[in-house]
Amino acid sequence: MSNDPGRRRPNMLEYIAYCYGRVLPDSMQDWVHNDLAGKGAATRTIIRAAIPALLVLGPFWLIPTTLYVHAAMTVPIFLPFLLFSHALNKVWRRHRLSEHHLDPDLVDELARTRDAPMHRAYAERYGRRPKARRQSCSNTVVPGVNTVVPGVRVTRSDGIPGSTRP
C-alpha cells in the first residue's frame, strides 16, 4: 500500500487490488463508502465482475471461425455470469462494506432517501404499519414444547392428527 496515511483516494495499483478484494486503509473510508454505496455503485460492481470473465473468454474470439460460432462459445458463459453478478451485487457490496468496517446497510442508503417521501405519504394516508408478530420457526427445538417423544402421536393445534414419529 502507500506510505501516506492521510490520502483520500487509492492509486492505480491500490485501486486494482481493491477491485478484486483487498481492503483499503481507514483513511480512505469515505472513498470506499461512496464507491460501494454511492450513485453508480451497482454498475461499477458489475463492470468489475465482468472484466475477469472477458479476459478468460476473449481468447475464444481469436480462433478463426464465424461470428455465430464465436457467440455460441462465449455468450452462454458470459450472460449467466452477468446475471449472477447482478443478482449478487448487493450481497457483494454489503460484504465489502463490512470488510472496511462500514455499516452494510449503507448499500440501501440511496433507495431509502429516494423512497422516503413515498413512505411518509403512505404513513400519513393509512397510518403506520403494525409491527410484525414474532413467528416461531418450526425446525427449532424448544424443550417441552416441540420435542419429539418416540411412539407419541402428535396433534397439530388445529386438531388434525399428525403422524407417529419413531
Can you tell me about this structure?
This protein has 166 residues and is mostly helical. The chain has one domain (12-129). The protein is 51% helix and 4% strand. It contains six helices and two strands. The protein has a two-stranded antiparallel sheet. A hairpin with a 5-residue loop joins strand 1 and strand 2. It is extended. The mean pLDDT is 83.
- List how many beta strands DSSP finds: 2
Number of helices: 6
Number of domains: 1
Q: What share of the residues lie within helices?
A: 40-55%
Largest sheet descriptor: 2 strands, antiparallel
What's the mean pLDDT score?
A: 83
Order of helices and strands: HHHHHHEE
Please tell me how large the radius of gyration is.
26 Å
Task: Give the percentage of residues in beta strands.
Answer: under 5%
* Class of secondary structure makeup: mainly alpha
Oligomeric description of these chains: single chain
Shape: extended
Q: Regions with pLDDT < 50 over 5+ consecutive residues?
A: none
Which descriptors apply to this entry?
single chain; 166 residues; mainly alpha; 6 helices; 2 strands; 4% strand
Write the layout of secondary structure elements.
Elements: H1 12-19, H2 29-37, H3 41-57, H4 67-87, H5 89-99, H6 109-126, E1 153-155, E2 161-164
